[in-house]
Amino acid sequence: VKEQGRNGFSFYSPEMNDYVLGRLEVEQQLRGALEHNEFCMHYQPIYCLNRKKVIGAEALIRWNNPSLGLVSPEQFIPVAEQTGLILPIGEWIIREVCEQGVRWRHSLDEDYRIALNVSPRQFRDGQIVPVLLRIFEETGFDPSCLEIEITEGLLVRNDDSTAQTLSQLKSLGISLSMDDFGTGYSSLSYLKQFPFDVIKIDRTFVRDLADDPGDQQLVTAALAMAKGMGLKVIAEGVENQFQMDFLASAGCDALQGYYLGRPVTAEEFQEKIIPPAEF
Ligand code: C2E
Ligand code: CA
Ligand code: CA
Ligand code: CA
């Protein structure tokens, strides 16, 4: 146990190579975080292989707390889900992203997309559609520039209201993307049941592409299947030229990863990423 911050403790976890903060401490600090302006959105470029340029970004939340320091979303998003804090935080994220999207409207291609992560809890309270509609109206953001990323966690319950919400989002012109594709148990059956437009191949399948023939086959098969279903494929976690070349020749549509660009602030994205990047 290592002391950290004024009144908190954190535990070292070797697998994560990171400090796992006490849950109560996270919860306590999270309650004041919106009010104290501790969140910030970062944007990671999504690079289109066909057009050889950046066609959008994934929005990723960052939390900098005075006593906890930078806390990874993998640590605080689950706490936000459990406590319901994800509802106000999620709404803040949507507004932030839509306001930014409007500012970028003229500097990005007309059909640019911003990808937004939405947690299952945000769906379950039944407010996601009205919240989105209100924010589109307030900001003037075009819903067809929004891609909503969801994970299997949402679909496991598979109730009518989930299906209904997803088709409402589609009818607003929003694209639906299955995040972390391949990591769950039922990705394939969900693709059949729900109106997805995009799959994002999880970075655990991209990581070892150079020396794992099994991963190569898996990615090739996933791409063939996605094409057959008329879906677009984005690969996550691209960190080197080998992965980029492999995914390009396998027919991937777009790439995301440190090799193409790390998540950066909106200002950095505007300065460094928007002027056409060539690879
Ligand atoms: P995710 O949706 O799968 O997001 C991709 C994660 O991979 C991000 O981590 C990103 O920084 C990281 N990444 C991108 N390229 C590379 C790469 O080349 N190599 C490696 N090793 N990692 C890469 P991040 O930002 O820490 O987010 C972690 C997770 O937290 C996200 O996973 C998502 O599930 C959740 N999250 C982040 N932002 C939000 C948000 O605004 N709302 C919600 N509900 N969840 C979020
Ligand atoms: Ca995501
Ligand atoms: Ca992902
Ligand atoms: Ca993930």
How is the secondary structure organized here?
Elements: E1 2-4, E2 8-13, E3 18-21, H1 23-33, E4 39-48, E5 53-65, E6 69-71, H2 73-83, H3 86-104, E7 113-117, H4 120-124, H5 128-139, E8 146-150, H6 152-155, H7 160-171, E9 175-181, H8 187-193, E10 198-201, H9 203-206, H10 213-228, E11 232-235, H11 241-249, E12 254-255, E13 264-265, H12 266-273
Parallel strand pairs: 5-7, 7-8, 8-9, 9-10, 10-11, 11-12
Antiparallel strand pairs: 1-2, 2-3, 4-5, 4-12, 4-13, 5-6
Helix pairs in contact: 1-2, 3-5
Short structural description:
The chain is of the alpha/beta class and 279 residues long. It contains twelve helices and 13 strands. The protein is globular.
Task: Give a description of the structure.
Helices cover 42% and strands 24% of the residues. It has helices at 23-33, 73-83, 86-104, 120-124, 128-139, 152-155, 160-171, 187-193, 203-206, 213-228, 241-249, 266-273, and strands at 2-4, 8-13, 18-21, 39-48, 53-65, 69-71, 113-117, 146-150, 175-181, 198-201, 232-235, 254-255, 264-265. The model is unreliable at 1-17 (pLDDT under 50). Helix 1 packs across helix 2 (73-83) and helix 3 packs parallel to helix 5. The protein has 279 residues and is an alpha/beta fold. One calcium ion binds at residues 58, 117, 149, 179. Residues 44, 59-61, 72-74, 77, 93, 117-119, 179-180, 203, 236-239, 256-258, 263 line the site of ligand C2E. Its main location: membrane.
